[in-house]
Amino acid sequence: MENEFCTCQGVRETDLVQTKESIEHIEQHLANITSRKPGNSRDSEITRLTVELKRQAVENDEQALAKTLWCYQAVHRCQNKYIHSFYDMKEGYYYGAWCALEHIENTLDALEQHFELDVDGKDSYKLLQIRKNTEQFQRLFPYKLFNSIGAVIHEMKCSICERPISLRNPCGHRAGEIYSGEMCSKVITKADLLEVSLVERPAQKYTVPFIVDKNTGKTIDHYNYAYIQYAVDNLQHPFSQWDLKVRRRKRLVSDFSHVGRNDYCPCGSTRKFKKCCIRKKYLMRNHFDIGIPVKPGEDMPAVLDNGVVRGKPRFPFENVENGK
Ligand SMILES: [Zn+2]
Ligand SMILES: [Zn+2]
After folding, report:
1. Of 273, 277, 276, which is closest to residue 262 (Cα–Cα)?
2. CA terminus-to-terminus distance, the chain
3. If exposure means fewest CB atoms within 10 Å of the residue's CB, which of 41, 67, 116, 221 is most exposed?
4. pTM, rounded to two decimals
């Protein structure tokens, strides 16, 4: 950004050289994505460097640079979340992976407003592949219905200037825009809860309903993750190439005699079996063609499963049981 003041007391030439080098350093790290292991020591180093550079850029009122660094932070977060979610799925921590995938989807949507995801047309940071794989994994998850919260919003404030805002009283900052290296959002500060309902297309996909055991109070993950498990078991690396085709296939209803009358209908409608296809002869059902190459690509490093340090399953509930 242009500076209308004298620059002699501002950025020194040596600082500029250092900044340029540091940014190249970050870019190199982001481009090395396919050889990075989860939780490698360089990640936190790069995170700290980006935060520090952004702080300096804001201090010098270099808005364009601050915005670029915000973009790099988002890229880095997406990449790391994606790699982690891949190994979480491999180890059966499905709900945690699901939440990470949703975070990636939202971050990429926001990032796309400010940044060319395909980076020089070569997908250097693998963001297009992350987006494709994220969507494919999401389709293989068994979650069909979500909790959705209906509310009346009374008060909102701007995350940048903290001023209370309303439709008639905007503050001038635009939601989704980057100001001094931070994205503007409208924060709800006061709302009345109207209802919680079950919906198929929620605003937030992490609101997956789980069953609670009446006797023990424990949350039980009752979902069947067979498709996801099949896919990740056969993928060697988070960036192995694979394809997913979903086709509708005709099946005999009598093939589903094991499905309870009150369970979801196997056709995937999210209605109860007894209220949907139970009396028909055939039903139409999604069939997943998971296309996985026999060998990983030559540019892929060796299998990374070994040596991945894992903590506890990252479920939102302390006492959840893993439905693997
Ligand atoms: Zn504002
Ligand atoms: Zn049905």
Report:
1. 273
2. 52
3. 41
4. 0.80
Read off the pLDDT of residues 135-159 as tens digits, 9 standing for 90 and up.
Answer: 999 999 999 889 888 889 899 999 9
Residue 55 lies in a domain: yes
Q: State whether 54 and 76 are in the same domain.
A: yes
Q: Ligand 2 centre from 255 Cα, in Å?
A: 13
Ligand nearest to the CA of 253: 2
For residue 157, give its domain range.
146-199
Nearest CA to 235 among 287, 294, 289, 298?
A: 294
Ligand 1: distance of its center to the CA of 180 in Å?
Answer: 12
- In the structure, ligand 2 is a single-atom ion and the residues with CB under 5 Å from it are 265, 267, 269, 276-277
Inside any domain, residue 210: no
Q: Are residues 96 and 161 in the same domain?
A: no
Domain count, the chain: 2
